[in-house]
Amino acid sequence: MGEQNLPLGQVIQGDCLQILETLPEKSVDLIFADPPYNLQLQQELWRPNLTKVDAVDDDWDRFENFAEYDRFTRSWLAACRRVLKESGTLWVIGSYHNVYRVGKIMMDLSYWILNDVVWIKSNPMPNFRGTRFTNAHETLLWAQKNKGEPYTFNYHTMKSLNDDLQMRSDWVIPLCTGKERIKINGNKAHPTQKPEALLFRVLASSSNPGDVVLDPFLGSGTTGAVAKKLHRDWIGIEQDEGYCRIARERIAAIRPEPYAKELYVFPSKRDQPRIPFGNLLETGLLKPGQTLFFGQQGEIKATILANGKLKYKGQSGSIHQLGRMIRKGPCNGWEHWYYFDDKTGKRVVIDHLREQLRKQLHDRLREAA
Fold it and tell me: Domains along the chain?
């Protein structure tokens, strides 16, 4: 996607505020930001074995006071908002040191927060002084540019990654260690290098191949590396010359699998042809008078009528209407009503039959083409 003369696939060295000003307005689909956390470390940290903790004490994480940090945060968030498309979304990661200030400023700038995701570190750094709880998580804020605009969320992809269970907002992922951790002369090349597994979830959930992904604080290049592997276009901004060199070398070494749509694009059910429940009767997959069960193990039964509605306790309605009445809340009838399969001797969700019809329709269209 070379539109609007974007510097795609580049690590740009410089101040993110200045670089963002050079990018076209409304040109970016997704932003992942890992800004300075303003950790405010006052003294050195030592382990019980008297080895020094390699903590974050770089100049880029130092601010005179909260007011200075807030001004900086407001500036880069506003600059990001300008380059985001109307349908774009923004992820910001932070810790208890900064995430509440960042979230407040995001809301002041009219970002609409969709989720806060907790990254639970399965191997956190201990609290060596024993004066507080071990800090075992960080928070990601996911927000859209404008409330109510359509945005990308690959719900079914995330559900599939989670063994067909709805992906929750608590992500258990280990810190970046071992071979993934970039080191120079035995020392960490970057103190806050994020694990690729974390960025995989971010990009897989909220972008598609060919989308433009921007990281205004690229660091050691994790966002660019994962974007390249997933066939997203990307732009990275980083002010430190050494980090830029590390990121460029890291990303250049990646050789992603050749792009094939069937490997990287997974249409959601919302994008698939609509199949009315009545089609199951017309094609003989279900029959009038047949019994449906509400839930795989439930005892509630309804009878299928010839007009495509169900009858339950003297009331008739669609699979969704009766489902809402039974649940006393929202209900997608395709996922809650089951039929008895004589071949397997088990109850099968009726959505299975809908998928059969969709496949038949797809095959007929392909033959016609």
Answer: 3-269 (3.40.50.150), 272-368 (no CATH)
